[in-house]
Amino acid sequence: MIFELHQAISILERTPGVLKSLLFDVGEEWSTANEGRDSWSPFDVVGHLIHGENTDWLVRTQHILEHGPEIPFEPYDRFAQFENSKGKNFEDLLNEFEMLRAKNIKTLKSLNLTNDDFERKGMHPGLGEVTLSQLLSAWVVHDLGHIAQISRVLAKHYKNEVGPWTQYLTILNFTPKE
Amino acid sequence: MIFELHQAISILERTPGVLKSLLFDVGEEWSTANEGRDSWSPFDVVGHLIHGENTDWLVRTQHILEHGPEIPFEPYDRFAQFENSKGKNFEDLLNEFEMLRAKNIKTLKSLNLTNDDFERKGMHPGLGEVTLSQLLSAWVVHDLGHIAQISRVLAKHYKNEVGPWTQYLTILNFTPKE
User: Fold this and answer.
1) Do B160 and A2 touch (CB under 8 A)?
2) N or C: which terminal CB in chain B sees fewer CB atoms within 10 Å?
3) Is the pTM of this model over 0.90?
4) Which residues does the UniProt record annotate as the domain DinB-like (chains A, B) (predicted)?
5) How many domains does chain A contain in total?
């Protein structure tokens, strides 16, 4: 296991700043662009990350510490942002995510988790038994996956602008599965 | 065509800040991680972006304005960073990229390009005839592609840490082609 809490936290703490650098005041043309059909825009993704802060990662961490695997986690609603973000300003969402993440990292640190805690088990409603370190690692990877997704969505906004460069810029040919 | 210079510049100006938010002082374990075999680490990618600032995008813009399609661009060396970055500190590379990008955007703005200029043609050594707006759009997409790549490389550093979550975190199953 290479998981270390301080390293995981160092990545989790960066995400709001990364998203603000990439997206704050970027304009609606970029923030609401998506990859077609029912794919997600940066606006949708930031709403999804907010819902994760409110209901998923830290909540499940506390659930494991309190209940172990006896009571499964509440299922996560992957579509909550379509209701929750309705009518909201994108910059407000970015600020809200930043505030929630800072609060959650502060709480996470206050739990003073030990190496023994990382082996504690929880019950995921879809995946079955998981450990606390797997949950915290998945939180990190989930952030990074969505940063990559947002970069790809922004790139695809220029899909028809690059002409023959399409063949070199492989990100343009990626089909989303998220 | 949806290309607009001020929008392209707004994305290009963000990249150094995005990379510093994601990577500055992140530690060697993350900055030198790659996706196996001869794939690139964040350290390699930032070196590649520096080489692009020195020899590719703005240089080719000026080449189009000066020579049109008569003289092809110099071929771009995709592997220059392996020599150029040798022995360098990662944080110095991030700062160097930031400085070069700021300088290049300043020069780009000073060219006062018009809509007519965007149609001017250049000769790419591999892709054939391209326009200036395609070149500038490709610069934007190239940045975003490498931000996505770096996020993916960082995510994969935790590939074996997430346990059963692998099946939900599709970024972990992506095989690089860059």
Assistant:
1) yes
2) N
3) yes
4) 12-150
5) 1
